[in-house]
Input
Amino acid sequence: MKGSINDHTNTATTMKLITTPRSTFTYASPFSPLFGRELERWIAGTPDPSGPYRPDLDVREDSESVTVVLDLPGVSREDVQVTFHDGVLTLAGERKVEAIGQQEVRSYRERPHGRFERRVTIECPIHDSQIRATHKDGVLTVVLPKTAEVRPRQIEIASA
Output
């Protein structure tokens, strides 16, 4: 079965995760082979790592489900919201900045912080009442089980 999953970001650029007929995902960007995501972040206007927080995302699909994994180091479970509506999985939340101590004279920050929102369009029927989300060791994992009609099924061949 051929399908696709689109990653919609809240920036001016839209990057897509596309499935091929074998359901392998590719990150569709002309710059990825050369520079990875750092150049894309710079082009999108966020070259400074302390700029808007955009956690990295992986999407995997098998015959039973679609799994979305989001890296959220330093983000507590209570600061993340997961919603699924009309085939769009929305992962939103906030990575809070640590307060600077009163005795600190200078501060240098490289770790990004702030609000984030990632949207992934799932283009196959999902059992939305059976979606599971777990948060462990700074990694959010969302498993979206496919409905029975889209799962491959073995068909027995009868003798004629």
About this structure: The longest helix spans residues 37-43.
